[in-house]
Amino acid sequence: MKPTTWCWFAVATCGVVLIHCGARSSLPGHKGAGQPPGSGGSTPQPDGGVTPPPKPCVLAVAGPATEVMASDDRHVMAPSLVVVDPGDEETARPAQVALQGFASGGSSSLHPDIQLQRLRVAPPWPGGTTIDKPPMLFGVETHGWGQMAHAPGGVGQLALAWYSDPDMVGYTAFRVLDIDSWSAQPPVEIAPNGRPALDLAPGSGVGPGGAGYQGNGYAIAWRELTDADDYNTITALGVLDLEGKLLLGPLWQGVEAPYPGYSPSIVWSSSAYLIATALPDCGPDDDCPPTLTVERLRPASSPTEDDSGLELAWSKISESVLYRPAIDSYGGRTWITWMESDPETSGYSRDVYLQELDAMGAAVGDTQTVDYVIRVESRPTLTATAFGLTIAYAQDGYGTEIEESGYNRIVVHQLDHEGAAMGAPQIIDATLFDDYAPPQAVALEHPRGLLLTWSGRSADSGHEVAYLGFLECTDP
Q1: Cα–Cα distance measured from residue 294 to residue 276, given in angstroms and rounded to the nearest whole number
Q2: CA-to-CA distance for 383 and 380, rounded, in angstroms?
């Protein structure tokens, strides 16, 4: 196959300076292959969600967005971040993050795959951001982006779940990366009939026979085809150990639906896995209006009695079109955000909502309206941290050229933990936004602030590339 040149960058205050490009031939992808690794999804809380919040701050845009992962002949799409080291303000130790990207298309003949690189983020922005580990193959032979998470409980590992298709035999796969050595274990198969991983959330494992929450593990959601001819799907959920072994599941969510079906978002609330899903209207002849649901994953009550399942914790019926929600926890508290639109507007304008949940998924207080958005380009993401709650999405901008910064923009709302706005929404100018996945964000301690990533059109190559933006802490 044709080699692919992957480029990594040193970022200067005047922009992005290319310092090295290296050719990488295609690597064989097969079950058990031990190639170096990659890809992305949930933000973990190694402390179990009980860290006391430090001093608050108001986030402000630190400077322009910058390219961080690109290929000379492929697009890089749906990037996401996981914090490897948040950094330390007292010792000036810089932060480190893992960035994954789905590489596909362009003029390359390579099979799509997922690449992983490690970034060092230090002040000032963007000049202090450099590549610590260059892009490496992590998710082999993939048919879409993956879900990446940091292992819970302070374990020095990253995990990736994705739809792998080696030798034209597809399955939902899982792979572990050791952070210290930056080396990957062989991929393991989670579901032989599985397709894309829809979410991966770090939290608790379960005991023998799937009984009770205990130890460390992940909850995972994936899609399965139930009828290859009609292309019907169903969503499956399960609990994994840290090495990807399925300890509980599959638990089937809802009923069959035409492809692509439903895509849930998962979080560990400190007491249970909560699963948030938007269920669309199933048609004029059926009594099932659009409904937002939060379900609680219930492990088995004993090793000998498999009574595990999903329990409805909260729901909201809507007359509007619902979009995939986002859910996150911090400090023992949990929140969900989502968008709704009038069916007549075809999603051109949307309302953004926020609801707090208790640790078992029930509503706490009233639903809050965060914003009314026009010309929206993505669903929202929610990041709950010491900085409060940040809700990010992409929106049309003011530019006329797709490679122009400002053609689209990334909007970030910062709220305190009670849902009150902390200043005006922050705007990061962007090129044409790639709508495979919404903007993703993680919190850093040094430099202190919120790091975001998304995919957009390169101003130089015309390909889709991964961008970073940074909101720095200022005094409240």
Answers
A1: 4
A2: 10
Q: Give the list of residues 6+ apart from residue 124 with CB closer than 8 angstroms, or none.
A: 13
Q: Please enumerate in sequence order all residues whose Cβ is within 8 A of that of 358, keeping only pairs 6 or more positions apart, or say none.
A: 334, 364
Measured over all CA atoms, what is the biggest interatomic distance in the chain, rounded to whole angstroms?
64
How far apart, in whole angstroms, are the C-alpha atoms of residue 148 and residue 153?
Answer: 16
Tokens, residue 184: 């990957």
Domains and CATH numbers, the chain: 4-474 (2.130.10)
* pLDDT for 166: 83
List, for residues 389-404, the tens digit of each pLDDT value.
Answer: 999 999 999 888 898 8
Tokens of 127: 């000049």
| Surface-to-core class of residue 310, CB atoms within 10 Å of its CB (0-12 exposed, 13-18 middle, 19+ buried) | middle
Is the CB of residue 155 less than 8 Å from the CB of residue 177? Answer: no
Which pLDDT does position 373 carry in this prediction? 86
Token pair listed for 387: 């900085």
Residues 339 and 275: beta-carbon distance below 8 Å: no
| Structure-model confidence comparison of residues 2 and 182, the more confident one | 182
At residue 232 the predicted structure's pLDDT band, cuts being 50, 70 and 90, is: confident
Distance of CA 330 to the CA centre of its chain: 16
